[in-house]
Amino acid sequence: MSGAEPTFDTQWFRRVLGQYPTGVCVVTGMGEDGRPAGLVMGSFTSVSLDPPLVAFLPDKSSSSWPRIAPSGKFCINVLAGDQEDVCRRFASKAPDKFEGYNWRAGRTGSPVLEHVVAWIDCELEVIHETGDHWLVIGRVVELDVERNAPPLLFYQGGYGSFQPLSYVTEDEDLAGQMFYADRSRADMEAIALDTGMQVRALALVRDEIVLVASAGEAPADEPALIGTRVPALPPVGSTWLAHADEQQVAGWLRLADPADHDEHRARLVEVRERGWSVALVGPVYDELTALAVEARERGAENRLATRGREIIPTLPLDPLGYTLEDPAPLLELYAPVFAPDGHVALLLALSGFAPDASHADKQAALDRLLAGARAATEKVGGAPPA
Ligand SMILES: Cc1cc2nc3c(=O)[nH]c(=O)nc-3n(C[C@H](O)[C@H](O)[C@H](O)COP(=O)(O)O)c2cc1C
User: Fold this and answer.
1) How far is CA 15 from CA 119, 154, 294, in A?
2) Alpha helices in the chain (DSSP H)
3) What is the DSSP letter of 231?
4) Which atom of ligand 1 lies nearest, measured to the CA of 88?
5) What lines the ligand 1 site, CB under 6 Å?
6) Which of 23, 131, 236, 371 holds its CA 20 to 30 A away from the CA of 204?
7) What is the rounded distance in angstroms from the CA atom of residue 136 to the CA atom of residue 140?
8) Nearest Cα residue to atom 20 of ligand 1
9) For 24-74, what is each residue's pLDDT tens digit?
């Protein structure tokens, strides 16, 4: 290789490169002796989305990396702002860096460290030799967000964490929906009182359904659900889309299997004509709820996104041709509260049906729910469809 002689020394190189901040992760793996190995890595980066590749650069003088490499697997553990001690531990030359520290084996068998922000479990794709380092590229086999915490950062030789300059709320749309929920509160309480059941307000915020308010007593064993989100994948969201324009419907349908588009469109027509929606009892709801709670509490959105994609299309939501005479046990009934522009502002969900509720009981509950939703529509200055 040719090139001009450098005009700087290594100290200067470090000094200038130190102006660039990095995140901090620990690369972990299993040694051939069956013991875990790990070292701190600032040079981690994502490389490719399809196929999913990541990379990092271990120093040729590292003693830990040669223990991990032969296994052909490793896990990237992204450290949190409060894990400086973990960073020091894994940047040391201690003979057993894992002593007294909890970890579990990930899918590849590589250690996932306790309390990290996220982990990315990989198989070794290729190693290139480059200067005094190796360039290691890994293929991601599994990854998840473990904890809702800011990351540890390394900058100019010191540690810190991340604080946004301006708090850009992701939920501008949510503020508007909260207004509708607030205005609907009295009607929600009245429905809950009259029926002895639970009423929840659901908002569509971009492509997710968010639970924004609740009235009436929840079952004692139910987790706190306010703030949980579920992706609006068809059939979820049908009540909103039944009153939306074609462009929005097309965007929603793009999330579904094309083979199911006709059925989803037929469902939207039925929901619009009927003026309400229904969810029947089904086992996947429990799993979906558990995933949504986990995602909100731990920031573990990946499992919700991946597993949700599989189970949401199977939800017994607005089955075609449904009438209240259907004996299948009811999970929830939904009635729309309309916004001034004629779109659905909120959905009021009524839950707590007895498994053997009679047709008359269901009808009475539905009538009360619809009357409450009409009253709430008036309070928000909404325009119900003509
Ligand atoms: C913030 C930070 C970033 C680091 N980044 C790297 C890196 O990208 N590559 C590397 O080889 N070592 C890096 N190190 C140093 C290694 O973690 C350290 O040399 C290693 O743990 C030595 O132990 P070993 O001999 O067990 O591998 C970094 C250390 C710190 C504190």
Assistant:
1) 30, 13, 42
2) 10-17, 65-68, 84-90, 172-195, 238-241, 246-253, 261-274, 283-298, 301-311, 359-379
3) E
4) 31
5) 24, 39-43, 57-59, 62-65, 87, 90-91, 93, 154
6) 371
7) 13
8) 91
9) 999 999 999 999 999 999 999 999 999 999 999 999 999 999 999 999 999
